Amino acid sequence: MTPIKLNKDQIQKIVLSVIGFIGLIYCYFNFFLGPLNRSRESMNKTIAELQAKTASSKNEIKKTDNLETEAKQATGRYEAFKRTTAEGAPIAWFPPKMRTFFSNQGIDKGNVRLESSADFSQPELSNWLKDSWVIDLPQSDYGVLGRAIAELENTQALTSVQKVSIRAIPDVPQYQQVALAVQTVLVKK
Asked: If you count Cβ atoms within 10 Å of the first and of the last residue's Cβ in the chain, which end, N or C, has fewer?
């Protein structure tokens, strides 16, 4: 094959075309593709930040839902606790309630007396009253007593047995004298 002879004008056109092509490639990468890449990187960072914010917002929504559920449960428990306090002074209704409770458990002749009454020092509990009671059971069986105390603790909300004193009865060895120190938390009415 014979080499093609190019004149000066053709060489200039080819050189100018190559320079123009190189300039076109340079302009494409620097002025079109470069800003697009920077914009894509910026958008990827923005998307990642927004996804992190969305994830934390979802966690906050879950926490809020849990807190709302807990608040409803706490409000329900609070209302239930308030309903456990009967109308009138506790000295009027608590002793008969305990005598009935223990007689239903098979322990008769219970005597209930108020030992002390006090307010709570916490301001959020200013509507509540802490009463200490002594329940004397002159004749009780160990097994019946144990079941009765367990039933008392499990069924009477805001009532707790603080102390149990048991003494043997010399004349009747199968029975014991029992004194229970019971604390109640009641709504002031």
From this structure: N
H-run or E-run covering 101: helix 90-104
Is the Cβ–Cβ distance between 137 and 102 less than 8 Å?
Answer: yes
Q: Identify residue 166 by its one-letter amino acid code.
A: I
pLDDT in tens, 16-36: 999 999 999 998 888 888 888
Q: Is the dihedral of CA 89, 93, 95, 97 positive or negative?
A: negative
pLDDT digits 0-9 by tens, 82-139: 777 777 778 888 888 899 999 999 888 888 999 988 888 888 888 888 999 999 998 8
Residues, the chain: 189
- Show the tokens assigned to 100: 């009935």
pTM: 0.58
* Structural domain boundaries in the chain: 10-84, 90-187
Q: Under CATH, which number does the domain 90-187 receive?
A: 3.30.70.60
Q: Which two structure tokens, joined as six digits, stand for 85?
A: 């306090």
Residue among 90, 101, 88 nearest 133 (CA): 90
